[in-house]
Amino acid sequence: MNILITGSNGFIGHHVAAYFQEQGWYVIGLGRQKQPRYPEVVDEYVSCDMDTDAIYDIMDMIGVERIDAVAHFAADMRKEPY
I want to staple 41 with a disulfide (CB 3.0 to 4.6 A). Which of 17, 28, 53, 75 is the partner? Predict the structure, then answer.
């Protein structure tokens, strides 16, 4: 099974990624940073700012043919108030 986890660099997202990886799922992390903060919990990582049109190219950036599930934990922490 392939799962895409948005916010995989965050507190909740990286714990969820670790859980699914332990279950044998192929975990694709998605975040704004160029590199994953927790590379040990993702099998693959995609850097993408979801505020841009780059979201339309996510499937071209990943190495699997399909995604079976999406877990959305991303939050925009760049603006006040947090």
Answer: 17
Residue 43: phi and psi, rounded to 5, are -85, -25
Report d(CA 4, CA 6) in Å as an integer: 6
DSSP the chain: -EEEEETTTSHHHHHHHHHHHHTT-EEEEEESSSS-S-GGG-SEEEE--TTSGGGGGHHHHSSSS--SEEEE-----SSS--
Burial of 7 (0-12, 13-18, 19+ CB in 10 A): buried
The pLDDT, as a whole number, for residue 44 is 97
Q: How far apart are CA 7 and CA 53, in angstroms?
A: 18
Task: For residue 15, report the phi and psi dihedrals to the nearest 5 degrees.
Answer: -70, -40
pLDDT 10s digits, 64-75: 999 999 999 987
